[in-house]
Design goal:
alpha+beta, 3 strands, globular
């Protein structure tokens, strides 16, 4: 299973998102710190979940980072994250 697939599965299981986008942007960081051939180092996520209700932006990011701790151990270097509630997503 690719790291992107693992991230998607983990977030689907733990946050039950109503919308989820997982994009590997590693190719845009070729030659930069943390990059490696084959991708899986830099991801952009857009997560819409009721689990974020009542939580600040920082709390939401901490939630996602905690869920993806194993991904960082597997080579994830950078994560761009947008975490919204269903009401914020419109």
């Amino acid at each position: 299973m690719s790291l992107g697939d693992w991230i998607r599965t983990t977030l689907e299981e733990r946050l039950a998102p109503t919308a989820l986008s997982v994009v590997d942007e590693s190719h845009q960081h070729a030659g930069h710190s943390g990059w490696r051939e084959g991708g899986g180092t830099h991801f952009r996520l857009d997560v819409v979940s009721a689990a974020f209700e009542g939580k600040s932006r920082v709390e939401r990011h901490r939630m996602v980072n905690a869920l993806l701790d194993d991904a960082f151990k597997r080579g994830l270097h950078a994560l761009a994250l947008r975490a919204r509630t269903p009401g914020e997503a419109g």
